[in-house]
Request: fold
Amino acid sequence: MTDERREQDREAPERDVPGLRLDVAQSESGAPAVEGVEPKPRVPREAVFSLEEVTVSYGTKPAVRDITFDIGQNEITALIGPSGCGKSTLIRCLNRMNDLIPTATVRGSVRYHGQDLYAPDVDAVEVRKRIGMVFQKPNPFPKSIYDNIAFGPRVLGMKGSMDDIVERALRHAALWDEAKDRVKTNAFGMSGGQQQRLCIARCLAVEPDVILMDEPCSALDPISTGKIEDLMLDLKQEYSIVIVTHNMQQAARVSDKTAFFTVELDEDEKHRTGRVVEFDDTEKIFTNPSDSRTEAYVTGKVG
Amino acid sequence: MSAHGETVAPPVEAVGRPAASRRAKDLGFRLALLGCLGLAVLLLGVLLWDVVTDGVDRLNFDFLTSFASTDADEAGIQGALWGTIWVMGVCALFIIPVGVATAVYLEEYADNTKWYNRLIEVNIQNLAAVPSIVYGILGLAFLVRGPLGLGPVVLAGGLTLGLLVLPVVIIAGREAIRAVPPSIREGSMALGATQWQTIWRQVLPAAIPGIATGVILALSRAIGETAPLIVIGTPVFVAFNPDGLDSSFTAMPIQIFDWISRPSNDVNNYLPLAAAGILLLMIVLICMNAIAIWLRNRYEQKW
Reply:
């Protein structure tokens, strides 16, 4: 039964929509999976993002190279790896934030629900409407809580009662109880964890499809981190989430799939480039990784 | 080694004071600095004292409400005061939009690698240092005579002074815009706002205190400029208030200059008039600078 499933999976790529990849990225060393363990039956999930041979360079030097994997709908995908291996660079590709950096160039294919994000007729502003981002350091605007959340809907011309939109966003971000009595006060009066949840609420107010989070908890204390992780698990039912994290345990706690990045030195140029070593179910990455480098990282031997 | 066989650390010298010669040099340096400061303050104080003793008696309500007159006892500063107010109004209306727009262009849109943008930048910094009389010649050639042919009226005076202080506003505006952290811009763009929406709704509101300070400092420089107004042909003896942009006018510095230039005798003593005018001008300047400092302190954004 299991063998038949595996057969089906291997045949599937030809029949399915291009960009819907079901096979796991092969590890560099080609090491086989551990014998005797039956692989879980793989349910084909719709891919929100399809990355194929994505290479991002600042100037002439590639920061990440040949990234190929899919991000699934209503899942939390974690990008883990040591510092400097291009995780933030990659996640910024997904909502075209790298356009703001003049020297950045993106090669390869980034598809969002099958549509090429970097096609010449695609408007980056529209992309960012659907794909929201939460940054590492909470960056609320120097306005009231209300105006922070209302900013997105206002500039996008969203219809509806602004009060309702703000309340809904705050409830969604588990911030309503703490904020409802002071929505008109300055956002800087809140604690770090609250500010980050405000940034998440702000992102939710424009009703995105995907939420990208670039190390959202690295500047926060453990209690705030816990609240945000609970929030993420809650949000995953309606949104797809991609999170970059330095905290392996966080990736293990919240994510469904994990991509492990590593950094490689170019022989001639002494330049660092990031690559994906392994991309798989989180449970497999952390209990039974295919690649030795992944194993070294998740067990804490390295980096 | 002590008798018991343990290692004993050698005795440490108690922390003492530096040698007398070093202390003397330190004190001497401090006294020298204080001396320089004292000299500057003393000179200023002497000048102020001279003006105050000459003019404070004359500085009264009659002085403010009387027009210029050849009779020194009757003369007042009303015409010049309103002339200055009108000209400053025109100047402000010119420098605020033009200066802020230029600052926004240079900071947000200009690509620094392009030669024409670098040329603009270098020019603005040079213009800030050009002697004011050169602006007078410019105003005479292009505004008063030449293509526009306005004549020595309020509009011409205001625009000439505006051109003089425009670089101050541009430079202060650029500093204020640059002080807005990139994280605010990124947060706004990530929500799907366009660049203009980000500038108009986030960057400029946050930069307003710095821009306002720059405008007030620019105006306080313009208010005391005599040379450009003389060159464009501002009349000295004006016994009426301006009634429009095309009205003839005079300004306080010019009126003061006129009173000082006249020979004084027992019948007509113009010196107290001049001193009173100087006092009034200084009071206005101090008020403007105080407002600028208050604005800056009150709205200083702590990121």
Chain B touches chain A at residues 111, 181, 183-184, 186-194, 197, 201-202, 206, 301 (CB under 8 Å). The radius of gyration of chain B is 28 Å. Chain B has a mean pLDDT of 89. Residues 70 and 254 of chain B are 15 Å apart (CA to CA).
